Amino acid sequence: MTAALPSIAGLTKQELAEKLVAVGVEPGKAKMRAEQLWRWIYHYGVTDFAAMTNVAKELRATLAQHYTLARPEIVTEQISNDGTRKWLIRFGPGVEAECVFIPDVGRSGALCVSSQVGCTLTCTFCHTGTQKLVRNLSAAEVVAQVMIARDALGEWPTTDNPLNDGDRRLTNIVFMGMGEPLYNLDNVANAIDVVSDGDGISISRRRITVSTAGVAPKVPELGQRTGAMLAISLHATNDDLRNQLVPLNKKYNLEDLFAAIRQYPSLGNAKRVTFEYVMLKGVNDTLAEARALVKLLANIPAKINLIPFNPWPGAPYECSDWNTIEKFAAVLNKAGYASPIRTPRGRDILAACGQLRSESVKLRASQRAKEEA
Ligand code: SAH
To answer: Which residues pair with 26 in a beta bridge?
Structure first.
């Protein structure tokens, strides 16, 4: 059996140019040729070099001999009754991550992507927190999640049918899948460069949100390098409680974190920080805490996302009562924060926050146990 050819779908401009030089393109011409390929790969989403009609026949043949434009393997695709879609993607043996498309979020629909397989943080309410880090995803592997979603949604324009921007369903990207994006910032920044490029996938940096558990020293750098929107997984208004829920807080406490947030470039009315706050029954959901939250966010251009806790088997928490969440939200509303409750989506396909890949891991674990027995 011949080994599968490597795919060049998902690469940065620089990487593409290197791949071209590697198959004999003159280094002086590699950049120009990479630009040509770029439009086919990222604007039209072609999966066959033969479709690249303005690329010389010989070069197309050479490329096809050495590379493919294949996407990583899709293990499963699930579609929820609310239109949410979830893909389990295999990047390599035992390297699997999920990404989720959520319709009617952002301008039209948001894709929630993973930046790592597993996670090193051990946030106590998050199911990914119970899984070991397998590895960082490469920039190409992050981009591939977007390409897979575009494939499935049928959103690549063709030369005959130039899809109007306004018709797109995938308009926003959120780094809220598995992993801590700021522990993989180089790859996340490169991936954002690729997907925001106006000659390709063209999702504006203002429609890309990176969520962090609070890696304070990397927060300003994220803004400088990517121009993306910032989201902070806050979940508590004092260090004692946050140390428990988000153990990373012991390394970078609220004071460090807020100092870093204040340095995020170009914050203002049009560029607000999103603060995520998971509603845990009897843990962080009193009205005093709602008021403390308002106080903590004073003078920061902010949005608040109250996330009803998504329970998972064995989780040490329950979701706050709906009544409690509404009262909590009312305090925020009164302080000027509009519609702060995030409705749970895709619950029937376990597409909710912190549940990604858990089923597949469980399945594999039970299979292993069977084999061992
Ligand atoms: N590591 C990053 C991004 C991944 S988590 C971060 O911490 O922000 C994306 C969001 O989902 C975070 O706000 C996280 O706190 C939240 N989350 C994780 N597990 C959850 C659960 N079981 N229920 C509700 N929200 C959860």
So the answer is: none
